[in-house]
Specification:
Layout (H helix, E strand, L loop, with lengths): L6 H6 L20 E6 L7 H16 L4 E6 L7 H10 L4 E5 H4 L18 H8 L2 H11 L3 E3 L4 E10 L14 E4 L3 H9 L3 E4 L5 H6 L5 E4 L1 H6 L8 E17 H6 L2 H35 L3 E4 L2 H10 L2 H9 L1 H11 L4
Parallel strand pairs: 1-2, 1-3, 6-7, 6-8, 9-10
Antiparallel strand pairs: 3-9, 4-9, 5-8, 5-9
Length: about 350
Amino acid sequence: MGMVIGRRAALLGGAALGTGAFAIGKARAAADFSYKFATNVPATHPLNVRLQESFDRIKKDSNGALEITLFPNNQLGADTDVLNQLRSGAVEFFTLSGVILSTLVPVASINGIGFAFNDYDTVWKAMDGELGAHIRGEIAKANIVAMDRIWDNGFRHITMSTRPIRTPDDLKDVKMRVPVSPLWTSMFRAFGSAPVSINAAEMYSALQTKIAEGQENPLAAIWNTKIFEVQKYLALTGHMWDGYWPLANRRAWNALPNDLRAMAAKHLNQGALDQRADLAVLNTSLRADLEGKGMLFNEVNKEQFRNRLRQAGFYAEWRGRFGDAPWKILEKFAGGLQ
């Protein structure tokens, strides 16, 4: 599992590691628990910056009992590989988009339904409320633990190397790089595109070599992965909100004493709130930064795109896939979609 249990813990036995056991006065030679945390974004991304702060607080408050090491930027493999490692226990923690997690937990992608959320207020009410709770319950059935607060990835926008996207018709026959997830493939097929499923680790080279003409991502990801070097046009579609669930291997998580587990969750959830605030600031400044790198922005009429999805039967199809119960929860926050 990649878990290292210190000598003191082994001598005391697991049952002795109850409340307050980790908060001893002496410094440790080695952590009782040494865990790995993988992410798929560059080290400079606010997600990794705030995660590292959370890890530092956890180490300090546990007096070194729990040490978490960050492996950013796909260091331990592409998303699908690391998800397998998380399930086996080779990696203890991983942040993953719910839309990609849906290959294992189908309802985890429901927050990514095209044009469901108009703004962040609605997103956080849903994801910190009933919709997020429903998704976490389904994730738990896959023997993975999701923290209470989802981290922000952002509203996603379309970029192109060849021409601007102004209306749904402009997407016809476009080779669009999408993450490995049925929801993205379905949505861009509904627009008449030719979606190509490619992991994040291979996205830049796929755009550079013209395997794909376009892609879609939040502004922070477009900046951090230097997509502006291989894409010229950016349509502010905001077609999907996407977040990163912090996920833990259930056995590794349950191996932690109750108080240590509660403290780790507290700091990871606080890190999520801090990172959300970071992205709110970044989203206002990144447009100017990307324009400074030569990207050309344009607005779109979102209702035109939403109507195209309705006409193509996209919402009806996904209501059928998710089931009425989670769809009704989504529509409590998003309003009627069909």
